[in-house]
Amino acid sequence: MKILVIGSGGREHAICWKLAKGSLVDKLYAAPGNAGIFRHAELVNIRVDDIDNLLRFAMEKNIDLTVVGPEVPLALGIVDRFEAERLKIFGPTKLAAEIEASKAYAKQFMRKYHIPTASYMVFVDMKEALRFVKGSSYPLVIKADGLAAGKGVSVAKNYEGAEKAIKNMMQKRQFGAAGAKIVVEDFLVGEEASVFAFTDGKSVLPLIPSQDHKRVGDSDTGPNTGGMGAYAPVPFVSEKMQKDILDLVLEPTVAGMAEERRPFKGLLYAGMMITDKGPKVIEFNCRFGDPETQALLPLLKTDLAVIFHAVVNGTLADEVLEWEDAYAACVILASGGYPGEYENGKEIHGLRDIKDSDALVFHSGTKFEARRFLTNGGRVIGIVGVDEHLESAVAKAYETNEKIRFEGKQFRSDIGYKAWTKKFKFLP
Ligand code: AMP
Ligand code: GLY
Predict the structure, then answer these.
(1) 214 Cβ inside 6 Å of ligand 1
(2) Is 279 among the domain residues?
(3) What is the C-alpha separation between 406 and 205, in angstroms, rounded?
């Protein structure tokens, strides 16, 4: 197979690395890719939202399968465009991608199909939203309806906080058109887990659960980021809990989307809160998570191209996923200032001294210029340690971290820490 992977992050590096290990792949392309993906794929200089040129490229090269990493091209309808030309592509259509691209749509869908989630209200009128939050109890969660690169969520502790968040979104348009509509929902108390499932629109094949670390600082402090680290599997998500999430969330979501005539094909990402009243959905995403994917794929024994093929051909019922009996932990190295302002172009030292037996290095925002690796994004590198014990997997990642240097490097030093100290907010 000739496969084109769309994206340029650590998630896409992990996908390319895993595909390259399989037996079905003759040739890999990545658009636009990064300096790490370059080891596995031919880089194609086309932006992820330039759908005309991606389509032209796939037709010219007779690509057998295109895999879409990020949500933006999915929300723009890349799958619809490729399928109209009879090209095979892994990911949901534009209508199905609304489960991520509109939080109001996702909430209305969950209400209709009785999928457990926080209670909520949707507003398009700022005065009404302000009136509602005046009479509410706190904390409350305020969310921009549209895509906001993981930054469109604000937890308000009191009316003043809610008022500020609502005005930022609806009046100042901090997230542009994404904030024209907002969701206000109850604050859920519990432990977060990311539960992914492959689906061909009918069958559901869940992956092992993982946990992201969204805040920039240790002990979950500071602003939200795209994700500063992840590990898998997650000890507090028991087999019983995984079964509940499959029965209460994943299966009814896939069945419901089919009933809505928006069949969901690709990877369904359920961002879960495990509460004392059972699992509840915080949000859905319509694609792999970053950095959860970097922790998950090194543990997957099954050939990823076989699964992608089964998803696009509607034969997922015949497949199973096999996993290593081990843990993986991913530590993200980010640019100084991230998730706020940061500078690109800092030289990254030490990458050549790392062996695959130490830890896996997945590039996020990097580029290669004049024989040097340079930073090229907020999240720069993900280091993944794998071991039969979670603590040792984490230790491997941090030992390798010491070898990598770039000006302004920041990282969290507590990835996975809660899992072995059992310092969860809530343990079922
Ligand atoms: P989202 O983009 O919807 O995943 O939200 C980003 C982060 O905000 C989540 O990972 C949670 O940490 C937090 N969050 C979102 N919604 C809620 C909620 N209803 N209750 C508690 N925390 C939430
Ligand atoms: N790690 C969170 C996300 O991919 O949305």
Answers:
(1) yes
(2) yes
(3) 40
Residues 234 and 284 in one domain: yes
Both 312 and 287 in one domain: the answer is yes
Count structural domains, the chain. 4
Give, for ligand 1, the residue of 184, 228, 282, 426 to mutate: max count of ligand atoms closer than 8 Å to Cβ: 282
Tell me which of 285, 297, 415 to substitute to probe ligand 2's pocket, judged by most ligand atoms within 8 Å of the beta carbon.
Answer: 285
Does 149 score more than 90 pLDDT?
no
Residues 161 and 204 in one domain: no
End-to-end Cα separation, the chain, in angstroms: 45
Residue 77 has pLDDT above 70, yes or no: yes
* Model confidence at 39: pLDDT above 90: yes
Distance (Å) from CA 250 to ligand 1 centroid: 19
Same-domain check for residues 406 and 363: yes
Work out the average pLDDT over 78-83.
98
Ligand 2 mean position, distance from CA 61 (Å): 31
Phi, psi of 324 (to 5 degrees): -65, 150
Confidence of residue 426 (pLDDT cuts 50, 70, 90): low
Residue that terminates a domain, selected from 161, 180, 199: 180
Tokens representing residue 21 in the block: 């290990």
pLDDT digit string, tens, across residues 236-294: 899 999 999 999 999 999 999 999 999 999 999 999 999 999 999 999 999 999 999 99
What is the pLDDT, as a whole number, of residue 428? 47
Contact 292, 232 (CB under 8 A): yes
pLDDT at 424 over 90: no
Q: Is residue 424 part of a domain?
A: no
Average pLDDT value over all residues in the chain: 95
Tell whether the model's pLDDT for residue 10 goes beyond 50: yes
Question: pLDDT for 332-341, tens place per residue?
Answer: 999 999 999 9
pLDDT for 425: 60
Q: Residues 184, 142: contact at Cβ < 8 Å?
A: yes
Structure tokens at 421: 């100290």
Are residues 222 and 140 part of one domain? no
Residue 172 sits in a domain of what CATH number? 3.30.1490.20
291 Cα nearest atom in ligand 2: 1
The residue assigned the tokens 């507590």 is 414
119: in domain: no
Domain that holds residue 58: 2-93
* H helices, E strands: number in the chain: 14, 22
Which ligand has an atom closest to residue 224 CA?
A: 1
d(CA 195, CA 31): 27
